Amino acid sequence: MKFGAHVSIAGSIELSIKRAMVIGCDTFQIFTRNPRSWIAKELTEDVISKFRNSILESNLWPIYAHMPYLPNIASPETEMWNKSIFHLKEELVRCDSLKIPYIIMHLGSLKGAKKEKGISNIIKALNKVFKNYRGKCVILLENTTGKDGSLGSSIEDICDIISRIKKQEKIGFCLDTCHAFASGYDLRKSEVITEILNGIDECVGLNKLLSIHCNDSKFDLGSGRDRHEHIGLGSIGETGFKALLGDKRLRKVPFVCETPVDERRDDKGNIEYLRQLLKKI
């Protein structure tokens, strides 16, 4: 199995590769830009070249980019919807230039609109983004806790959206364990994991599940709280992660940690914990 973490691009984006290698990643995730700003720092030819060459020299693969937080393709507001589409297209171009194969994104917030309208806006936006897109990057939709009107807490809804995208080769799914647990999926039970995977398989095919955001939860089942915890130290606990790692259908899906870094454990520690846990199964 491949394990990794979200790593910083501070200083320059190619430094993320060295950071990923130092903590023992097989795979890793980055933001290609400031995630809380509409303004993206330009990727120069020198930066692009250094990043691509460093990837070729490493054994790290695949690489994931995460979309910034501000775009909202579910928005009922036309200006925000169009602006979000523009920036999603921009991020696809950035990832293609860096040869990053996947972008992970949240579905967005309803902002007072009905759920059906938000889902319709997402489908229209993605089909519009892909209409004239000739690049290779694939967008992965990530499940959320459903807090504050955000869409995506239902895995069934995400699969339904994926099934309605015209360019099927450009769309996939990222399962976040903390978000799933917070929205009511009890991952401590192997039968729940089986039900989730069977549902994905029946709707869009398990080949669409291309990343696991591997995070424990600080809060209890169904809390709706998006607070990540070290693997095995939260409410999902060792039982839940053993159940996840024990399902052989997930053995080829990369696990990427977005866990805290504190006095108890760091990214390297969480990756090693997962590797040791796998050996016990």
Instruction: Indicate the percent of residues in helices.
Output: 25-40%
Shape: globular
CATH class placement: Alpha Beta
What string, H for helix and E for strand, traces the elements in order?
Answer: EHEHEHEHEHEHHEEEHEH
Q: Mind describing the biggest β-sheet?
A: 8 strands, parallel, barrel
Q: Would you give the CATH topology? A: TIM Barrel
| Binned strand content | 5-15%
Please give the order of strands in the largest beta sheet. 1-2-3-4-5-6-7-10
Number of helices: 9
CATH 4th-level superfamily: Divalent-metal-dependent TIM barrel enzymes
User: Which architecture name does CATH use?
Assistant: Alpha-Beta Barrel
Integer-rounded radius of gyration: 18 Å
Secondary-structure-based class equals alpha/beta
Distance between the termini: 13 Å
**Number of beta strands:** 10
Question: Can you tell me the number of structural domains?
Answer: 1
Nearest-integer average pLDDT: 97
Unreliable stretches (pLDDT < 50, length at least 5) are none
